[in-house]
């Protein structure tokens, strides 16, 4: 594990993101079950509904986790700058926590608001990590 010691923050960020995803999963299931939804059913698509917002927070996080993990692991394996990989991965985790709070709390409008800005911030971080991995590989 010594080869990856310099990337400790990035590794913790990936674990933290997985933890957040795993935490939101049962919370979402409990809320949907309490609302009488069948397993696998989606709540009505209305951002006025706290259950829908929680459902979307979990879904959005689940959708983004794979690409973040891939680019972060690629950057680590390619030997990209540990300083930058750690900072970017940590910022990504913070952005996803903020995005989950924004989703669940219903802050801003449903479209092109704070939620969109925070999402794009995380997306840009993933893109930078991907470019860093590609550059470091060559």
Automatic annotation (TrEMBL):
It holds the Pfam family MAPEG. GO terms for cellular component: membrane. Keywords: Membrane, Transmembrane, Transmembrane helix. Its main location: membrane. Gene3D superfamilies: Membrane associated eicosanoid/glutathione metabolism-like domain. InterPro entries: MAPEG-like_dom_sf, Membr-assoc_MAPEG. The chain crosses the membrane at residues 6-24, 61-81, 87-105, 117-137. It is found in: Membrane. This is MAPEG family protein. It comes from Roseovarius spongiae.
């Amino acid at each position: 594990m010594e080869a990856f010691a310099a990337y400790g923050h990035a590794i913790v960020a990936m674990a933290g993101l997985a933890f957040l995803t795993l935490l939101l999963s049962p919370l979402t299931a409990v809320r949907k079950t309490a609302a009488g939804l069948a397993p696998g059913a989606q709540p009505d698509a209305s951002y006025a509904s706290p259950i829908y917002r929680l459902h979307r927070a979990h879904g959005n996080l689940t959708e983004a986790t794979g690409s973040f993990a891939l680019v972060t692991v690629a950057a680590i394996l390619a030997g990209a700058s540990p300083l930058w990989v750690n900072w970017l991965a940590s910022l990504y985790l913070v952005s996803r926590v903020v995005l989950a709070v924004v989703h669940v709390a219903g802050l801003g409008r449903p479209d092109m608001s704070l939620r969109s800005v925070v999402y794009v911030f995380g997306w840009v971080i993933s893109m930078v990590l991907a470019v860093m991995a590609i550059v470091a590989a060559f």
